[in-house]
Each structure stands twice: as structure tokens, then as C-alpha cells.
Design brief:
Protein Transport Mog1p, Chain A; ten-stranded antiparallel β-sheet; 40% strand
Length: 181
């Protein structure tokens, strides 16, 4: 239930973010309406803050979801995690709950699939990230993907390079589970 609420809130927050930066009165009214929809979707006791470039949702139990609307990497994205040499941040989200953390970042690149895969594979081999398994490769028609699961200092990560026709994306999903008490 909580995951569904957060997913709904994230979708609505992205809609609110799309309205950010508007200058006309009508645009400001639409922005506030979108914020109200987010607040209604996630319930009472949830705080919605929209700063320049980010939307943050925080509930009473300390869970927090931050969506970067400026297309930048989250501040706590590990500097040791290799990135493609050329990329644009398409989407970035950060969710925390106590000492638990989830980062989800989607990059797009103009590089070819095989070039990105080779670049990241080589960089990951020489990085401090420890593989949890061998990389996985899938090809289905015009879709191709390469994924690698890794971990470092309690942070688990999955890096996926995906290709659909000429569109190449790199997705990073990272999670640190909260400490058990």
C-alpha cells in the first residue's frame, strides 16, 4: 500500500514539477492545483515542498521522496559509480526512510549501445563496486539490455543499459535497507 501511495505521489509530483517555473497567474494556479492533488493523493500529515529544481514529499514517519526536476544527479549519488562519458539526466529520484535509501536515475545518451556497455563494463571492473552476479544480457527483437548487480558499503545497485531502436538509456537503481533494530 505504501509503495503504491509513493508511486502515485511521485507521478503527481512529476506533474507538479512540469508546471514549475511558470510565470503567468494561470500557470501558478495550475501549479498550486497540482500540489493540492499530490497532497490529497498521499494523505494528511504529508508535507509537500517545491523548491527550485526539486519536489520533496515528507510524511509523519520520516519517509521522504525527492524528485529532481532540474535533471541533475542526486547529491548522494556515489561518485565511485561509473557514468557514461556522454549523458543527459532524464529522471532522478531519491527516497529515504531513516537510514534506508533508494536512488533511481535514468540517463539518456547519444552513444551506441555496445559502446556504453563496454565503457561501463570496463569502468565497473576497475571500480570498488563488488559484483553480486555476472552481467545479464537480453535481446528481444529491437530491444536489447545489459544489466549488472553490484554492491558497495551496504548499498546495492543495479546498472542497466537499454536500447530500443536508436534510443539508449542507462538506469541506476540503488538501495540501502534500513538497519534492523
Amino acid at each position: 500500500m505504501k509503495t503504491r501511495t509513493i508511486a502515485t505521489a511521485a507521478t503527481l509530483a512529476l506533474a507538479a514539477g512540469a508546471l514549475a517555473g511558470c510565470s503567468s497567474i494561470q500557470d501558478k494556479v495550475e501549479e498550486r492545483l497540482a500540489e493540492e492533488l499530490v497532497e490529497q493523493a498521499i494523505g494528511d500529515g504529508t508535507e509537500v515542498n517545491q523548491d527550485e529544481g526539486t519536489i520533496t514529499l515528507k510524511d509523519d514517519d520520516g519517509s521522504e521522496l525527492t524528485i529532481d526536476t532540474d535533471q541533475e544527479l542526486p547529491e548522494d549519488f556515489p561518485s565511485s559509480m561509473p557514468l557514461p562519458s556522454q549523458y543527459t539526466v532524464a529522471q532522478a529520484m531519491r527516497m529515504s526512510n531513516g537510514d534506508g535509501l533508494i536512488l533511481s536515475v535514468v540517463l539518456t545518451t547519444e552513444l551506441e549501445f555496445d559502446a556504453v556497455k563496454a565503457e561501463l563494463s570496463g569502468a565497473l571492473e576497475s571500480s570498488p563496486w563488488v559484483p553480486k552476479s555476472d552481467p545479464t544480457e537480453v535481446m528481444m527483437g529491437e530491444m536489447e539490455s545489459w544489466s549488472h548487480m553490484l554492491e558497495l558499503d551496504g548499498l546495492e545497485a543495479m546498472v542497466t543499459v537499454g536500447a530500443m531502436q536508436d534510443d539508449i538509456s542507462v538506469t541506476y537503481y540503488m538501495e540501502r535497507s534500513p538497519e534492523e533494530e
